[in-house]
Amino acid sequence: METQKQLTIGLFGFGVVGEGLYKVLQQTPSLKATIKKVCIKNPTKKRNAPADLFTSDKNDLLNDAEINVIVEVIDDSIAAFEIVQTALLNGKAVVSASKKMIADNLPAILALQEQTGLSFLYESAACASIPVIRNLEEYYDNDLLHSIKAIVNGSTNFILTKMFEDKLSFSEALLLAQQLGFAESNPKLDVEGFDAVNKWAILINHAYGIVSHPDNILFTGIQNVQGTDAAVAKEKGYDIKLIAQAKKLKNGKVAAFVLPQFIPVNEPLSFVKNEYNGVVIESGFADKQFFYGKGAGSFPTASAVLSDIAALRYNYKYEYKKLYHHQPHILTNDFYLKVYLSFDDWKYIPREHFEWIEEWHAQAERKYLIGVIHCNQLVESDWWKSNNTSLVLTPEAIIDNLDIVHLKKRSLELAGLN
Asked: Which CATH class is domain 336-414?
C-alpha cells in the first residue's frame, strides 16, 4: 500500500476560507497536514492564531524547502497566478480556491502541470462543498455525458430565493446577502454573473475537455430580473434560477452559457434555495444525477480545500482525460434559444432578430414575449441587457439547428399563420 506523505503547508490568505481551513485542520489530526506559515497582506490586523504563524513576505513560503504544499485562497487573481506559478516551478504541489485566476489562466496552468508533473487541485473553486470536479474527472466519460446544468453561485441564488419567497425587492435581497456574508465585497461579480461564468469555464473543461476563456461564454446575471418576472414565473409553475449549463448538440459540438432560466417547481434545481448550489448531470445510461450542497461560506469551502489536501497525500492529480485522452469537444454558439423577454417599451426590442414569437403580452404595464432567437444574436449585441430589459430562458431552452425548421412550421400552424 502506498504510504501517506506528511504535508507541510504554506497558506496564502487568512480570510473567511483561510481561517476556516486553519480551524478545520486543527480538528483533523489524522490528515498529517500542518500549516507552517501563513502569508497575509495586512500584518497589523488582529487574527485568531499565534502571531509567529504569520508573515507578509511571500518568499518565506515559496522558498522554504520544508513546505511541500502551497494553499492559495486570496481574492487577487493576478497575485494568485504568480503564487501558483512560482510554487509549481519550485517543486511544490498547489491547492487553490481562486476561480477567476484559474478561469483566466487555464492554458498556462495546464502547461505548468505538464511541465512540472505536479498536482494542482481546485475542487473548492467551483460549488464549494460539492465534489463536482473530481466526479466529472473520474466518473463520467466524454461520450456519455449529455448535459450538465447547475446553480453555481450561492449569492444570486440567495437573492432570487428572497425575491420569490419573501417578496423582497432585488435591492433589499442584495443588501441582506451582503449582511450575511454571502455576496462578494463587490456584488457586481456575483450579481452580473462573472463569478458563475468563471466557475463554468473550469467545469466545462472537466466535463468536455473544452479550454475556453470566460469571455467566450455567453452569460449574464440576475441584475435585470424584476418582481413582475417572478410573478409570471409563479403563474406558470416555475422558479427563476441563474443556471450554468452545457449540452451536447446533435452535431457533437457543445452549447454552454450562464443565463437566468425558468425551472419547473418539480425539478431538482428548483429545490436549491438560499446559498446552496446544485448540479444535475445527465448521462447516457445513468439518466439524471443530482448533487446538492452549500456553495458558499467558511467551512463548506474549507471542506473542499481539505479534500484536495487529503488527496495530495497520495499524489492525486487531475488527468484531464477529456482533453488529453479523447477528442476534446468544441464550444459553439450555433444553436437557437427559446426565451422569455420582459421590457418597458417595444422600441428597444429588435423583433426582426427573432425566428418567431410564440406569445406576446402587450397590455400589462410590463410587457413580455416568448420567442425563439439564434444564440449569436445574443452574443453579438447586448440590447437584451440594457433599457430595463430582462431575459429569462424557458425550461427546455436549447433548440438544435436540425430541429428548427419543423418546429418553426409547427409554431406557425399553432398560431394560425400558415
From this structure: alpha beta
Q: What is the pLDDT of residues 277-314, one digit of tens each?
A: 999 999 887 789 999 999 877 888 899 999 999 999 99
Distance between CA atoms of residues 384 and 382, nearest Å = 5
* Burial class (CB within 10 angstroms; exposed 0-12, middle 13-18, buried 19+) of 131: middle
Given the residues 37, 100, 149, 199, the one annotated as active site: 199
Domain residue ranges in the chain? 7-125, 132-252+263-294, 336-414
**Count helices and strands in the chain by DSSP H and E runs:** 15, 16
DSSP 3-state of 125: helix
Q: What are the residue ranges of helices labelled H in 117-209?
A: 132-138, 154-165, 170-179, 188-191, 194-208
Q: On the CB side of 298, how many CA atoms lie within 13 Å of its CA?
A: 13
For domain 7-125, the CATH architecture is 3-Layer(aba) Sandwich (3.40)
Cβ–Cβ < 8 Å for 308, 124: yes
58 is catalytic: no
The string of pLDDT tens digits covering residues 48-84 is: 999 999 999 999 999 999 999 999 999 899 999 999 9
Residue 364 CB neighbour total at 10 angstroms: 11
Low-confidence ranges of the chain (pLDDT < 50): 1
